[in-house]
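User: I've been trying to design a sequence by hand for this structure and keep getting stuck. Would you show me what you'd pick, starting by listing the structure so we're on the same page?

Assistant: Good idea, let's start from the same input. This is the structure you sent:
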């Protein structure tokens, strides 16, 4: 008999504290010790931001995507509000670690409210988690200790600002550590980008551009087994371009190749590559190469 899948929906930080046996020091933010948590559900949904610092994530479980080229001191997962989380087939939450829970209302009138969306790793999959070295774990632990210290201070007019700044500092460290992780995953990233090049080459060669059907970043990310956010950040870090910018360069390369055939007029090439009209094609071509399609053709003869 198949066991029914049940998701525990935790609506508030106070409810989260009750479920996980923690004291409520502030109604909008909490730091919870996850020592052997008992959760009634196969999965959990937090209706607020949740950051997990996982201190024990076995190499063999593979639930957070850690590989031999990653650090293994601790792992971090970032959950945006209403995201459903399940640690593994046997555990809803990590058996050891910390949960930082904070409601979006905590950020009201703080600087973090205006740019929390820039921390794109809140949109990563669990399998794209951040794996920390011992030194990095120490930095994150220090940030959490500062948050805990502030939580034990009586609530006053400065509490939300100070807490949000401690959270923001920790997120800035996580941004740095994710960039480091891109570096330590260099060989894997090269293989991923090579696969992307191959898939994009096949797409262009298939003639689908002619229909005006452009390959989206989310579609490419799905083919690579990545989240759209992780794929976009990886591309930006490795190549320095957005997906649309990169796609434009690849389409331009194909346009240059097609223009070398005398029978291909600029209008025909524009049609083959899915441009609405030759004027738009010529404008983009000149903007990116400094010459018109016809001038480029003559320059290659």
């Amino acid at each position: 008999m198949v066991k029914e899948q049940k998701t525990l929906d935790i609506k508030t930080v106070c409810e989260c504290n009750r479920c996980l046996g923690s004291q409520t020091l502030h109604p909008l933010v909490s730091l919870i010790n996850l020592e052997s948590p008992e959760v009634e559900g196969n999965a959990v949904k937090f209706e607020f931001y949740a950051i997990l610092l996982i201190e024990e994530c076995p190499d063999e479980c593979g639930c957070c995507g850690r590989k031999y080229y990653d650090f293994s001191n601790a792992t971090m997962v970032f959950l945006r509000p209403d995201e459903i989380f399940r640690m593994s087939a046997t555990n809803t939450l990590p058996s050891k670690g910390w949960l930082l829970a904070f409601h979006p209302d905590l950020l009201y009138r703080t600087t973090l409210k205006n740019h929390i969306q820039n921390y794109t790793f809140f949109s990563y999959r669990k399998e794209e988690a951040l794996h920390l070295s011992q030194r990095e774990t120490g930095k994150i632990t220090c940030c959490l200790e500062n948050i805990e210290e502030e939580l034990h201070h009586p609530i006053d007019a400065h509490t939300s600002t100070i807490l949000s700044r401690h959270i923001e500092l920790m997120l800035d460290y996580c941004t740095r550590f994710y960039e480091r992780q891109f570096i330590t995953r260099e060989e894997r990233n090269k293989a991923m980008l090579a696969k992307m090049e191959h898939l994009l080459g096949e797409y262009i060669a298939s003639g689908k551009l002619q229909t005006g059907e452009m390959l989206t970043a989310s579609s490419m990310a799905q083919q690579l087994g990545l989240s759209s956010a992780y794929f976009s950040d990886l591309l930006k870090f490795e190549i320095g371009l957005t997906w649309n910018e990169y796609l434009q360069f690849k389409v331009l390369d194909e346009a240059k190749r097609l223009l070398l055939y005398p029978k291909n007029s600029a209008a025909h090439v524009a049609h083959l590559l899915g441009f609405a009209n030759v004027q738009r094609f010529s404008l983009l071509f000149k903007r990116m190469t400094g010459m018109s399609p016809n001038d480029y053709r003559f320059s290659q003869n």
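That's my pick for every position. To get oriented when you compare it with your attempt: The chain has eleven helices and eight strands. The longest helix spans residues 159-184.
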